[in-house]
């Protein structure tokens, strides 16, 4: 399995996003760097709209992720409810 | 350790970059200036393009228009990326609020059938023409010369995409995906749209980018936008079609704003030399005739018996606009 | 009939398809080949553009909304930075030399990327990739401008930033990144996508941006951190475009595989050579270091790139051969590059200096196999000489590689004491390259690379003087005249950091800020 990752700027907007990702992806590993937080996972990482909404108490469009996104690795699949990164090997 | 650095008065060594100082003197420069002037390379290219070996990568000779300084073609709106996106995001907020209101209240369902049909026939297929506007302006953004004009052409290309997407939403709002299929069929085959489609396809093979600018931005937009988003829009509002006007408000505002920028380019290029002016006049005459032919069926569909009077009126307005930029009409 | 009930809410993918590819049409009044004249000459075969998978699905209104929000945040930080003399919060003014290299060598190329993606966004017959390319074109002008705006404040107070476009076109080491982008833009749209969209944006961008921006964060440079991370948020879109593009080419026709593989090999090596400058920056130019070049290479290329190439293996794509050499090179190139700039510090628009003992100990720890053995003695010797008042500046001109345009300073893969030279012949003339990788690229397209405007050759041919220079004058100093042609502020932009105006000003200003006068 190969590692996929996603990194965000560290700020107030991304804290609930990062929490949601960590809860929804039990194998994920958090790597906190200056001004940046990176999440690594084996093979696959799923971000769920509902989980983020539950934390922030308002509706959330997954495209809002882009405002604070720094980098990703893996093939991306995006629909209304999920944002998935995966390697196919 | 927190240092209160604001209390320190330090004299800068220089106020701006050398290229800006050479043009305007060493004084504080605007973000538009620093982000635009001389940003495109002009000297010393390593390889000739494989796709056009007769030219350098950036080359003044891709148009017959000649300018001593291509940065004379500045944008009166002073759009750099940040100013551009912030301006458009305000407009899209307003547009979004309009679409939301129409959806929530079901306003599209209350439209008189005749107006709905007019909108489906005239607004929705126009999204393909807007896509042509995107292609023509991305061509200029790629092959034009000098950031002052190529930069706003990319913004203009993306605006056309935005307009095409708003028109798509009008179709979806009025009738759902079927509206888009019908519009595409009409664009490809209906006599109503063939002259305009031919005009646009002809502009897509023009290789002189300033000619493209005249054919697309000055002439075609200068006639189509007033026809559809001013005159026809007036009809919609007058006859109980306000929801349609709400969905196309962006286009009305946008064309007024962008026309000022387009005029400024034409005016400066024409004033540069008699040769430029003669060339612009030639293009104007050539494309105005073709564009009027191309939109005649649309005017006919929109205004029936009043079509000719409307077109005459529009032509007069357009001619006086061109005359103000120094062109002969 | 209830109209609302029949209007099913469209999902993101379906809605986006209507908003984008639904817009295009097959032209009939003009042939498609005339409307898209550059779609076929590279030999890439595309049978069905509709099979293109959109990576990100942003409509223009969403683009405007999110990007404007990023811009508001970014410019608020830049304004605050300028108002509060943020430049005095950096660790040390030495740090700024890395940023000078960035503004002169990278920012103008963001602009070229903008033009190149506008061209790709016009030239592909498929609507999906065209729109993605146009959005990237728009992002790239954003990057060029936000970098210029962020660094404009440094330009007001420090040397070496003042004429970046003029320098990029002329200065010897800046021809390295410039020729890289000229090479990509002069190729066709498909090769452009592999060169910039895939190799640069996907394989190598993390190596450029993440260390640079983390370096900025470690060194208190909030302006650079802000534009860097803000630009990176667009990069995620660009990476998915590059990856999608390569998969699409490979899925469309098996004949595309050898062409794509050749381009990947070429552009991986071209990119890695350019990144030598980043390696040097990480290992030598940051007062407070993030990680070594070797570590960054291992994380972002060997691990992450490895995952990528495993993923592409099902199409028959192999890891580029040059990676074997990179595994050796990662222990050497940053030291060789800094040693070169140290010697040619008189002809560079940024300052150089000797590493301190503490810094050399860090380098020994990070490079246990090479630093003490090959490089410490050299830097130690130079420092001793400098302390005696003999700061060494080379006044000769180095020979440049015909392809990557870096001086011939890299060593043989199996012997780090031997400079590597390769030689090719074309139409009866000899051409020199710095490595097997560059020789391979030259030999494949000699008619392209013989065109290279090599700064050193051009100096010798007399093409790098200002119009007022007079070679007949007995006092004519060719080196000095070249630096005038570069528009250097002599004695301020160049030479050692020790004793520079930047050093003096920074220390004085910082003193004003921290002490009561």
Q: Which range best describes the helical content of chain B: under 10%, 10-25%, 25-40%, 40-55%, 55-70% or over 70%?
A: 55-70%
What composes the largest sheet of chain B? none
β-strand amount of chain B: under 5%
CATH top level label of chain B: Mainly Alpha
Strand order of the largest sheet of chain C: 1-2
Helix content of chain C: 55-70%
Principal-axes shape call of chain C: globular
CATH superfamily of chain C: Ribonucleotide Reductase, subunit A
Mean pLDDT of chain B comes to 96
- Note poorly predicted spans of chain B: none
What do we call the CATH topology of chain C?
Answer: Ribonucleotide Reductase, subunit A
Please state the CA-atom Rg of chain C, rounded to the nearest Å: 24 Å
CATH fold field value of chain B: Ribonucleotide Reductase, subunit A
Q: Would you identify the CATH architecture of chain C?
A: Orthogonal Bundle
Report how far the terminal alpha carbons of chain B are from each other: 70 Å
Number of alpha- plus pi-helical segments of chain B? 13
Features of the shown structure:
heterotrimer, A: 89 residues, alpha+beta, Phenol Hydroxylase P2 Protein, 3-stranded antiparallel beta sheet, globular, C: 517 residues, mainly alpha, Ribonucleotide Reductase, subunit A, two-stranded antiparallel ribbon, two-stranded antiparallel sheet
Describe the structure.
- Chain A has 89 residues and is an alpha+beta fold.
- Chain A has helices at 14-24, 49-56, and strands spanning 3-9, 29-33, 36-42, 44-48, 69-73, 75-78, 82-86.
- In chain A, the strands form 2 sheets. In chain A, strands 2-3-1-5 form a 4-stranded antiparallel beta sheet, covered by helices on one side.
- In chain A, helix 1 packs across helix 2 (49-56).
- Chain B has a single domain (75-324), classed as Ribonucleotide Reductase, subunit A.
- Chain B has 13 helices and no strands.
- Chain C is mainly alpha-helical.
- Chain C contains 23 helices and 4 strands.
- In chain C, strand 1 and strand 2 (415-419) form a beta hairpin.
- Chain C is globular, with a radius of gyration of 24 Å.
- Classes of the chains: A alpha+beta (89), B mainly alpha (329), C mainly alpha (517).
- Chains in contact: A-C, B-C.
- Chains B and C meet through helix 2, helix 3, helix 5, helix 6 and helix 7 of B and helix 1, helix 2, helix 4, helix 6 and helix 7 of C.
């Amino acid at each position: 399995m190969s590692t996929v990752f996603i990194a965000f700027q560290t700020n107030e907007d991304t804290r609930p996003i990062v929490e949601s990702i960590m809860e929804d992806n039990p194998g994920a590993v958090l790597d906190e760097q200056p001004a940046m937080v990176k999440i690594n996972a084996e093979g696959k990482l799923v971000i769920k709209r509902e989980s983020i909404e539950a934390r922030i108490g308002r509706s959330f469009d997954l495209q809002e992720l882009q405002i604070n996104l720094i980098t990703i690795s893996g093939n991306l699949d995006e629909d209304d409810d999920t944002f998935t990164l995966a390697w196919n090997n | 350790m927190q240092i209160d650095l604001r209390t320190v008065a330090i004299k800068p060594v220089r106020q701006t970059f050398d290229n800006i100082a050479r043009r305007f003197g060493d004084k504080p420069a605007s973000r538009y200036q620093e982000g635009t002037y001389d940003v495109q390379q002009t000297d010393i290219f390593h390889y000739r393009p494989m796709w056009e070996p007769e030219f350098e990568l950036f080359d003044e000779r891709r148009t017959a228009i000649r300018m001593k300084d291509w940065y004379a073609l500045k944008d009166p709106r002073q759009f750099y990326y940040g100013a551009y996106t912030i301006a458009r995001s305000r407009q899209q907020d307003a547009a979004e609020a309009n679409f939301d209101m129409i959806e929530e209240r079901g306003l599209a369902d209350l439209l008189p059938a005749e107006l709905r049909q007019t909108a489906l026939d005239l607004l929705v297929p126009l999204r393909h023409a807007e896509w042509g506007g995107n292609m023509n302006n991305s061509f200029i953004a790629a092959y034009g010369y000098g950031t002052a004009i190529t930069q706003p052409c990319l913004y203009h290309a993306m605006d056309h995409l935005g307009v095409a997407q708003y028109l798509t939403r009008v179709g979806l709002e009025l009738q759902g995906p079927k509206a888009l299929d019908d519009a595409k069929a009409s664009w490809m085959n209906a006599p109503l749209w063939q002259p305009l489609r031919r005009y646009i396809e002809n502009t897509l093979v023009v290789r002189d980018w300033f000619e493209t600018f005249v054919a697309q931005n000055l002439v075609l937009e200068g006639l189509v936008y007033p026809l559809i988003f001013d005159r026809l829009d007036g009809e919609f509002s007058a006859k109980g079609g306000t929801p349609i006007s709400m969905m196309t408000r962006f286009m009305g505002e946008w064309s007024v704003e962008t026309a000022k920028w387009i005029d400024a380019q034409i005016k400066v290029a024409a004033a540069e030399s008699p040769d430029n002016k003669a060339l612009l006049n030639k293009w104007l005459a050539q494309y105005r005739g073709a564009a009027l032919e191309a939109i005649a069926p649309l005017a006919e569909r929109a205004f029936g018996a009043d079509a000719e009077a409307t077109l005459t009126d529009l032509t007069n307005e357009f001619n006086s606009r061109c005359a103000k930029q120094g062109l002969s009409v | 009939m209830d109209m609302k009930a029949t209007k099913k809410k469209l999902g993101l993918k379906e809605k986006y398809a209507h908003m984008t590819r639904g817009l295009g049409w097959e032209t009939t009044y003009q042939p498609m080949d005339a409307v898209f004249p550059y779609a076929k000459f590279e030999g890439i075969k595309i049978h069905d553009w509709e099979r293109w998978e959109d990576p990100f699905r942003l409509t223009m209104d969403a683009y405007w909304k999110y990007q404007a929000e990023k811009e508001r945040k970014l410019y608020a930080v830049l304004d605050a930075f300028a108002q509060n003399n943020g430049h005095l919060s950096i660790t040390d003014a030495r740090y700024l030399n890395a940023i000078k290299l960035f503004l002169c060598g990278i920012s103008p190329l963001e602009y070229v990327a903008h033009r190149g993606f506008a061209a790709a966004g016009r030239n592909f017959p498929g609507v999906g990739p065209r729109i993605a390319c146009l959005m990237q074109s728009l992002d790239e002008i954003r990057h060029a401008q936000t970098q210029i705006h962020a660094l404009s404040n440094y330009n007001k107070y420090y040397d070496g930033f003042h004429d970046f476009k003029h320098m990029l076109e002329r200065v010897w080491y800046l021809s390295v990144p410039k020729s890289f982008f000229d090479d990509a833009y002069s190729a066709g749209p498909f090769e452009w996508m592999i060169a910039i969209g895939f190799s640069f944006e996907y394989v190598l961008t993390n190596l450029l941006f993440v260390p640079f921006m983390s370096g900025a964060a470690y060194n208190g440079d909030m302006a650079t951190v802000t534009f860097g991370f803000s630009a990176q948020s667009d990069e995620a879109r660009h990476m998915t475009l590059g990856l999608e593009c390569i998969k699409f080419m490979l899925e469309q026709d098996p004949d595309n595989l050898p062409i794509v593989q050749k381009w990947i090999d070429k552009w991986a090596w071209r990119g890695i050579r350019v990144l030598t400058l980043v390696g040097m920056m990480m290992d030598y130019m940051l007062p407070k270091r993030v990680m070594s070049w070797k570590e960054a290479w291992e994380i972002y290329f060997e691990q992450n790139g490895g995952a990528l190439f495993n993923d592409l293996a099902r199409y028959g794509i192999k890891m580029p051969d040059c990676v074997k050499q990179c595994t050796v090179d990662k222990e050497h190139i940053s030291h060789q590059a800094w040693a070169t700039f140290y010697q040619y510090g008189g002809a560079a628009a940024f300052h150089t200096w000797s590493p301190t003992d503490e810094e050399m100990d860090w380098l020994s720890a990070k490079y246990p196999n090479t630093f003490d053995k090959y490089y410490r003695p050299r830097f130690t010797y130079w420092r001793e000489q400098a302390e005696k008042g003999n700061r060494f500046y080379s006044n000769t001109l180095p020979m440049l590689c015909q392809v990557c345009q870096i001086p011939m300073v890299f060593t043989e893969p199996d012997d780090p004491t031997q400079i590597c030279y390769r030689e090719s012949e074309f139409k009866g003339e000899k051409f020199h390259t710095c490595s097997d990788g560059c020789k391979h690229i030259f030999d494949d397209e000699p008619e392209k690379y013989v065109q290279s405007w090599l700064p050193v050759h051009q100096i010798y041919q007399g093409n790098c003087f200002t119009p007022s220079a007079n070679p007949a004058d007995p006092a004519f100093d060719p080196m000095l005249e070249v630096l005038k042609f570069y528009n250097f502020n002599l004695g301020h932009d160049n030479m050692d950091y020790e004793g520079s105006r930047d050093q003096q000003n920074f220390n004085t200003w910082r003193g004003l800020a921290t002490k009561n006068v």
